[in-house]
Amino acid sequence: MASTTQQPTALERATTAGPVRPTPATTRLSPVPPGAARISAGWWADRQAANGERAIPEGRRHLEEWGNLDNLRIAAGTAGGEVRGPVFADSDVYKWLEAAAWEHGRSPSEQLLADIREVSALVAAAQEEDGYLDSVVAERGSAVEPGPGDPTGSRERYSHLPWSHEHYCAGHLFQAAVAVTRATGERQLLDVAVRLADHLVETFGDGAGQVRDVDGHPVVEMALVELARETGDGRYLELARWFVEARGRGLVAAHGHGPTYFSDRVPVREATTVEGHAVRAVYLAAGAADVAVETGDGELLEALRTQFAHMLATKTYVTGGLGSRWDGEAFGDPHELPSDRAYAETCAAIGGVQWAWRMLLATGDAVYADALERMLFNGFAAGVSLSGEQYFYVNSLHVRSGAHADHERSPAGGRQTWFGCACCPPNVMRTLSSLDGYLATTDARGVQLHQYAPGRVEVDLPGGRVRLDVETRYPWAGTVRVRVEEAPSGTTLALRVPAWAEGASLRRDGHSEDVGPGTYAEARDVREGDLVELELPVRPRWTRPDPRVDDARGCVALERGPLVYAVEECDLPDGVLVDDLVVSEDELPTDAGTDEDLGGAVRVRVRGRRRAPGPEDAVEVLAVPYPTWANRGPGAMRVWLPTT
Amino acid sequence: MASTTQQPTALERATTAGPVRPTPATTRLSPVPPGAARISAGWWADRQAANGERAIPEGRRHLEEWGNLDNLRIAAGTAGGEVRGPVFADSDVYKWLEAAAWEHGRSPSEQLLADIREVSALVAAAQEEDGYLDSVVAERGSAVEPGPGDPTGSRERYSHLPWSHEHYCAGHLFQAAVAVTRATGERQLLDVAVRLADHLVETFGDGAGQVRDVDGHPVVEMALVELARETGDGRYLELARWFVEARGRGLVAAHGHGPTYFSDRVPVREATTVEGHAVRAVYLAAGAADVAVETGDGELLEALRTQFAHMLATKTYVTGGLGSRWDGEAFGDPHELPSDRAYAETCAAIGGVQWAWRMLLATGDAVYADALERMLFNGFAAGVSLSGEQYFYVNSLHVRSGAHADHERSPAGGRQTWFGCACCPPNVMRTLSSLDGYLATTDARGVQLHQYAPGRVEVDLPGGRVRLDVETRYPWAGTVRVRVEEAPSGTTLALRVPAWAEGASLRRDGHSEDVGPGTYAEARDVREGDLVELELPVRPRWTRPDPRVDDARGCVALERGPLVYAVEECDLPDGVLVDDLVVSEDELPTDAGTDEDLGGAVRVRVRGRRRAPGPEDAVEVLAVPYPTWANRGPGAMRVWLPTT
Question: Taking every annotated instance into account, which residue ranges of this chain make up the domain Non-reducing end beta-L-arabinofuranosidase-like GH127 catalytic (chains A, B) (predicted)?
Fold first, then answer.
C-alpha cells in the first residue's frame, strides 16, 4: 500500500519508544525507539509486508463481521441489537489498534491512520461517564463461570472478575493507546485509556481490597506499567504492583477452574515455575518483570529468573511453544510435552516473547534473547500463514495421517482466517508490526544486536549517533555483516552468538576469532567504516530430546540455525505415512536448496527408511522449516522423528 | 452386614435375568440369571464385599450430602431450597439404586431393601403428572451450552437436549427399575419407569422428529431395549432404534462442542471407529448392539464389530482404558494414547465392558471376552480403592514425581471419596454388584466360562441342570479347576483361553492337551464328577507397544496373566524417581510373593538401572498390579517402562 504522507526520518519518529520503555537506569539494556532498528528484507520483512498489506486490513473487516465493532456502537448507543462474541471481544479491537499503530509507525499510511482514528472514536464513544469501558459486560453481563448448569449472568461491574476479563480488556486498551500515541503522536485514545485507568485506580487503588478479586486473565499489569511510563503517573505503576502482589492468594479460586489455572495458587515472588493457563501465566510474569524493574524489586526479579529457567528446562517445546494441555490451555507437569496434543497457543509464544524481552532488558542475559529467537522463529511464526492472513491457534508438533479436525483450533484442519475466540490473529499482527523493536538495544557501552535480519540501526548514544548497516541472509545462511557507518569513539558492538552456534567466529579487519555460543561477541571501539562479520554455523543438526519427555523418546528433531524443521506427509513418496518414517541419527541431513514457494526457505534432505507394515524401504524426504508447514494445505506432519 | 432374610436358592432368584437379557434366539450366547453364577472368594469377591459393606452404604450418604436426594424432594414439593449439583444429578441416584438392587440380589439385606424402597419412593414422588421426571431441569432449567458468555437457562422440557441429559437420566432410571424388579421382584420403580418411558414414546415416538434433538449423552438406548425386554413393550425398542438411527445426522451439532463430541458426526451404521466423548460413544455402541440383536439388524452389528476392532487396535490403552483426552473426555486419533494425560475415565471402562459383553453375547467371539477381562481387571478395577469407597475418575498410566494435582479428578491427588460430577462412583458400585453375571453364558450345547474366579455356576439347560464348582487362585495363579457336579448328557463345557495365554493346556481325566490362546477350549460331554482343569501360563511377561504410540516408544509394559503392572515410586530406593528407572527387555521380571496389604496381589520383581543424573546404579523394585496402585497414598507411577 503506497503511502502519501511524507515520511519522517527514523530519528524524527524515534522521539518516544516502542512497546516497552523502561525508565532509564532500571534495566541493564535499553530498547531502541521505534524506527531506530529497521528490517529491510528477508524472512521477517516478508512476514511484515504480508501483515501490513493483508492481515491488518483483513483484520478490520473481521472485527466488523464478527460484531466486535458493533459491540462498541451498541454500548455507545449508536447502534441497536445485541452484543456478540466472547466477553473479551473488546480486546481484539484493542490488539488490532495496537497492530495498526505500530504498522503506521513502520510504514506510514493515510488510510491506516484514518482507520485508527475511526476505530479509536468508536472506543471513545463506548466509554461511560466515569471512565468505565467494557461493551460486552455493560450490555450483556458476564457469566459467573463457564460451566454447564450456571445460567447466571450479571451486568454489575467487576462482579465476576475471574471470568469477565474487564481488567484484561482495559490492559489491551492501555497497550493500544500507548502504541497509538508513540507511533502517531495522537492522544485521543490515550485520553480514553487514562480515564479508564483513573477509574481503575479509584476502584481498586487503595490496595485494601475494595473488591475481592483480581482479573482472571492477567495483562493489565504490564499495560498499567507501560501507561505509567508513558504518562508519568505513578499511581498506575502502584496499581500494577498491587495486582501482581495480590496474585497467588486464592482470590480467583473456585470459579470453575482451580487457582492454578489463574496463576493464583502461589504468590509470584514465591513461585518456582510457571503453571496453569499458559497465556495468563506468561502475561503475568511479563507484567511482574515490569513491576520488578520499575520498583527495583530484586527479589521479584530473581523469582522470575528462576521461573523462566524452569520453564525453559522443563516446560518449553523444542519449537519454543508453551502450554502442553488443551484442557485448560495450560502448562503441564515438568517434561509433560506431548507432540500430538501440544497446545502451544500462538498467544503463549507471543507472551513468552514479551516476558523474555523484559527479562533480557532487565538482565542483559543472552539466555533470554536465545529463548526469544526460538519462540519467534518457530512457535510464533508457525501461527500465521506465509500469506499473512491465516492463523493457527494451536501449534502441534505432530499431526497424524488422517487426523480428525474436531475443533476450529485443531491443526489437522489447517490455519483459519479467524476464530470465534479471536485472541491470536490480532496478537500476531501487533507482534509483527512491532518486531523491529526486538533487534537491538543500547547500554552505556554501545549497541547490542540480539536478532539478525538485513536492515539498519540508527540510534543516539550519549556520545553520539551510531549507524549500522546489517547485511545477512539469516536464518538461511549464517553470515551477518555489520558495517559501521557512524559511531562515537569507544562504542562496543555486541553480537549475540546463539546457544546452538557451536563453532561461531567473529571477523574484523581480516582478523577472525572463535566466539562461544550463548554469549555476546564484542567488537570494541568500532569506528566508521568498520566491517564486523559474525559467522554462525547454520547447517542441519539433529537434536536429541530430554529422556524424560516421553513423547519424544527414541526420536530426534532436525534443526538448522534458529529453525526447527518438520516432515510433511505431502513430501513423502505416495503411500508412505509420516508415522512410517524412521531416521538414523548417524546420517546427518543435508541442505536441499531454496524453495521460493515456502518463503525462500532452505529445505533439508532427510534420508530414512519406511517402517513396517511393508518392506523397510529407503525413503528420502525434503523437510521444511516448522514455520512454513501447512502452507500447502493441511496434512500430516512430524517434528520429532523416530530413530528406532 | 448380616442379613436376616431367608436366602432363596440361586435358582429361586434366577427367575428373571441380570442387567442384560436378550430375547432368546437373537444372540449366540445367553447370559445366566442372577445368582446362577456366583463368585465366592478371591480378588473379585473382596472387591464385591467392600462394595456391599462400605461403598453402597456410603453412597447413599453422599447422595444425601451432595443434594441429589434433596433435589428429588424439592421437585416433589416436600422440601424447600434450590436444587444442587450438575444437571444430571438424578442419574447418580438411579445408578446407586441399580447398584443396591443387584447387591440385594447378590447378598440380600433388609436394610438395603428398605433403602431401595425409600429412595424409590423419593423418585416416584418427584415424577410429574404426565410421567416427566427430571428434578434439576424442572426446578432450575438447563443451560444451553457449557461455555462462557451463555447465561441463558430454560426450564422448558427437552429444549436443550444436547446438554440437559433428560434422556440420559431417564435411561439410568430404566436400568435401575429393571434391576430393582429383577433383583427384588418389587415393581414400584418399574411403574415409574414405564410412565416416563410412555411419556418419551408419546413425545419422541413417531420417528418423524417432533423435536429437533437427540440427547447429547447416550444411555437411554440400551436402557429402553432392556425395558422392552422386561416389559415386553415393543414401543420402547422402537424408540431406542429411532434414537440410534437419528444419531450421526447433525442433530446435536453446534452446541458448544462439535458433532464429534456427541457421537453425532457419522450414523452409527456407517461409522468405522469410535470417536468423541468416550463414555457417550461406548454407551451408544452398547445400545446399538442391543438394538441390532433385537431387530436382527446384521448390518448394524457388523458395523459395531468393525468399530470395536478399530477401538481395540488403535484407541485402547494396554490397561483397557478408553478415551485419551482430558479435553472433551474424548477418544483421540488412532494411536494417540498418552500415558501421563490418559483420561481413561472409569465410566468409559464400564461402558467398554457393557459393549464388549453385548458383542460377546451376540457373536460368541472370544475377542470380546478378552477385551472385557482386560478392561475389568485394569482400567475398571483401578477406578476404586481396595477399601472400596475411594475412586479415580481418571486412570492415568503415568504420574510424575511431584506432579501437581490441579483438578479433583487428577490421579496425582489420589482417589477421592466423591466428585462434584459423581458419575463414576455409583457406576463402579453397580458394576461390582452385578459382576457375577459376566462369568458364564449358555447356548444350546452347554456352558461357557468367560471369566475365572472361585465360585459356582448352577444353570438350567433344556436338557437339565448344570452345576459347576470352580476352584482357582486366578488371577494370581493360572490353574482353573472346574468340577462338574451335575450335567445333562452331551453338555459341552467351554473355557476361554485368554489371548495372552500362549502355552495353555486343558486337562481332563489325566489327559492334557494344548489349547490355543484367543479361543475357547472345549470339554465335550462332561458328566457328574468330571474334573476339567485349565492351565494358564500366569507369569510375568514384557509387552511391547505399537510403534505408532509415541508415548510408549522405547518402553515395555509388564503384564502377568490378565493384569498390567505398575511401578510406584514409593517402592523405589530413596532418591530414585520413577522417571529415572530404565529396564532391560532381556531380563524377565520374576514373581516376588504375595502382598496381603495389596489385596493379596502377587508382586513382581523388576531389575533395572537408574538413568542419569547420577550414576547408573542397579535398581530393583517390586511392581504392583495396576488396579492396586495408589492404595498406599498418591504418588508417582509408571506403566510403560523405558528400556533405553
Answer: 39-436
